[in-house]
Amino acid sequence: MLSYQNMNENQRRLYDEAKEANRSGWLDLRHNEIGDAEAQAIAEALKVNTETNTILQGTLRSLMMCDNRIGDAGAQAIAEALKVNKSVITLYVEGNQIGDAGAQAIAETLKVNTTLTVLDVSDNQIGDAGAQAIFEAIKVNPTVTFIDLHTNEIGDAAAQVIAEALKLNKTVAKLRMDLNQIGDAGAQAIADALKANTSLTALSLGRNQIGTAGALAIAEALQVNKTLTSLYLQYNCIGNVGVEAIDEARKVHGTSEVSISDQINPLAFSLLPRLATAEDLQAVFCLLISGSELQDQSASLPVLPPELAERIMDEAHYFQGVQHTKRSQFSAAFFGLALNVTLPRNSVRVKSIQVLRDCRASLDEIAFDVNIRDDQGAVRYECAAKPAFVESTIQLVTICPASHPFLRQIRESWQVQVQPSKVSANLRFESLYVGYV
User: Fold this and answer.
1) What is the pLDDT of residues 26-41, one digit of tens each?
2) Which InterPro entries does UniProt cross-reference here (predicted)?
3) What are phi and psi of 135, to 5 degrees?
4) Helical H runs in 21-86?
5) What is the CATH number of the domain that holds 132?
6) Domain count, the chain
7) Do strands 174-176 and 202-204 pair parallel, antiparallel, or not at all (unpaired)?
8) Secondary element (H or E) of residue 30
9) How far apart (Å, rounded) are the C-alpha atoms in residues 435 and 323?
10) What pTM value is reported for the model?
């Protein structure tokens, strides 16, 4: 437990502000450079208000800590406080650095908390494990009605657990999962859940990787589901057959709001950089030494000079550890805004930066303007990256350490940025992917 006497000046300021906020009913700490230490102080105030201050107890309703630097430790502290605080009903922690461990702590709180109705953990670093934990808790939570998980790292494995939870849960009415990595398997599982679910009224799955198979499953579910009124599927890779099936199901079902326009060329999602295996590294090594005889030897490979090993690692895109991908995406709704990806805490090394452009019509070659900023916002590197033409309407550039050595200097909390396109009127979307371990 963090005592008031052991807090620094900034922690005490936030602690006092959190206590004072009980009189107004809400605490707005957006854009406050709050990290884990500050979040822990706020958490202590939430506990004190519940445990000892009977005059103020129960008046703080909304806690907003969006666009800060809260990581897993801070999320864990807030989650512990909400196990005993019985007044907060809306929690907004969008745009922080919360990963699976923080999400799992929030999940444990959801199992015992009976006041929270809104949970916004969008634009964080939550993967399958964190999302799975949250929805395992949602199976038993009786109060949450709105969950926002957009712009995380959630894939098909988590979507399948989410689907199972939706079959059982009777309170969640709105669910946002845009800008994740959900494909056909995840969409099919969610579609199956929609056949049984009777509470969900709004579902947003835009900007994922759902194809025609997933869309057909959702279309079939719409013919059975009686409660869904809003469905967002824009900027996936659904073909004409899937689009037509959704449209026909909408007419039968009577869904008032269905957004399925501006689908992306499916080829775009097959171009993501992948993490090479140890076998790939062996193959690259053999090519570099111009001989294959080592492939059949049981002995270990010889120790390489550091500069050669570094080159092989770069060429093979091979790194020890687990690959993650953060994505920022442009559409016409965000005209004039740069694409940004901030490297999370504990990211060791950038593997590659990839920018993809999908256009409505053929375009001339137009470079991507890429900037890299440090954690203070200063530009440390910039380049005009020349795209390759994958198809007539798709342009792609991949930046790796081998061709841009500065990537080796990128540190956690640095930001990769792509400036607004000069051809935005003709764009279907632009997407920035940063692969790191």
Assistant:
1) 889 999 989 999 999 9
2) Leu-rich_rpt (IPR001611), LRR-containing_regulator (IPR052201), LRR_dom_sf (IPR032675)
3) -85, -20
4) 36-51, 72-84
5) 3.80.10.10
6) 3
7) parallel
8) none
9) 6
10) 0.80
